[in-house]
Amino acid sequence: MTDTVLISLKKVSKIHNEGRPNEVQAVVGIDLDIARGKVTVLRGASGSGKTTLLTVIGCLARPSSGRVALDGRDISGMPERFLTRIRQETFGFVFQGFNLLRGMSALDNIMLPAYPQAPPHRWLRRRALDLLSMLRLEHRADTPVEMLSGGEAQRTAIARALVNDPPILIADEPTANLDTALTREFLGIAETLKAQGKTLILTSHDPRVFEAGMVDHVVTLRDGRVEERR
Ligand SMILES: Nc1ncnc2c1ncn2[C@@H]1O[C@H](COP(=O)(O)OP(=O)(O)OP(=O)(O)O)[C@@H](O)[C@H]1O
User: Fold this and answer.
1) Where in the sequence is the domain holding 138, given as residue range(s)?
2) d(Cα 193, Cα 173) in Å, to the nearest integer?
3) Whose CA is nearest to atom 30 of ligand 1?
4) What's the CATH code of the domain at 92?
5) Which among 137, 10, 123, 125 is positioned nearest to 66, based on CA atoms?
C-alpha cells in the first residue's frame, strides 16, 4: 500500500543563534515526507540535527527557511496562536529526560496538557487513569514522579503525551538509558499505538529501535542533511 503524506517538509533549514558568532546551521535544506499511520525514525550521530528537525516537525520551532505542511496545509507562516493550537491538537511529545514536573504525582503530570481545553475534571481523571492502565502503571498514579523508576517515568511521559489523544506522537531518543527489557517494552507500546492508527516519529541512534520490525521508514541524517532514507 502506498503511503499517504501527513507532514511535508520542503527545503527546510534551521539555524540556531542566527547572525551571532555562535551561529550553528543544524538542519540544511531538508525535503521530507512523513507518512500517516506509520513509524518513522530519524537516525544519525549526535549533533546530526535529529532533535532540531523533530522540533520543526512538531511545530515547537519555526524553520529559518523552507516550508512545513501538515495535512496539505502550509503552517510555516501561521501566527503563533494558531500554531499553538495546532501543536496542542496534533502532537504529543515525549522529551529526552521526560520533563516531568517534580513534586507532582504521575496522575497530575498526565492531566496537565489537557488543562488549556478545560475538560470536566472527572472525565479528565478517568482518561488519565485509563492511559495509566493501558501502560500498566495504575498502581503508580499517586506516586510523586521523582519516586518512579526510569521505565515508569517514561511510561508516565508517554501517557502525558497521549492525554489529548493526538494523532501524532513524537519521541526524542525514547530508549536512551533504557535496558533491553525496557526497550522492548517501549517498542511494544509503540506497536500498540501504531495499531491504534497513530503516526509515530522518533529520533534514535539505537539499532534496537531503527531495526525494529514495526518501523516503516528510517531517515539517516548527517551534518544536518538527509544522507539516506528507506
Ligand atoms: N538551542 C540550540 N542553540 C544552539 N545550537 C544548538 C541548539 N540546539 C542544537 N544546537 C546545535 O545544532 C546541531 C544539531 O543538534 P541536534 O541536537 O539537533 O542534534 P542531534 O542529532 O539531536 O544530537 P543528539 O543526538 O546529541 O541530541 C549541533 O551542532 C548542536 O550543537
Assistant:
1) 5-229
2) 17
3) 47
4) 3.40.50.300
5) 10
Question: What dihedral angle (degrees, nearest 10) is formed by the CA atoms of 31, 33, 34, 36?
Answer: 170
Q: Looking at the chain, how many residues does it have?
A: 230
Residue pLDDT, tens place only, 112-140: 999 888 889 999 999 999 999 989 999 99
Q: Report the distance separating Cα 49 and Cα 226, nearest Å.
A: 10
Cell of 5: 503524506
Structural contact between residues 98 and 134, judged by C-beta atoms closer than 8 angstroms: no
What's the CA-to-centroid distance between 122 and ligand 1, angstroms? Answer: 41
Ligand 1 pocket mutation, candidates 12, 16, 225, criterion most atoms within 8 A of CB: 16
pTM metric for this prediction? 0.93
Distance CA 20, CA 153 (A): 37
Atom of ligand 1 nearest to the CA of 224: 14
Task: Note whether ipTM > 0.90 here.
Answer: yes
Q: Name which residue sits closest to atom 31 of ligand 1, judged by CA.
A: 47
Using CB distances shorter than 6 Å, the residues near ligand 1 are: 16-17, 24, 26, 44, 46-52
Tally the domains of the chain. Answer: 1
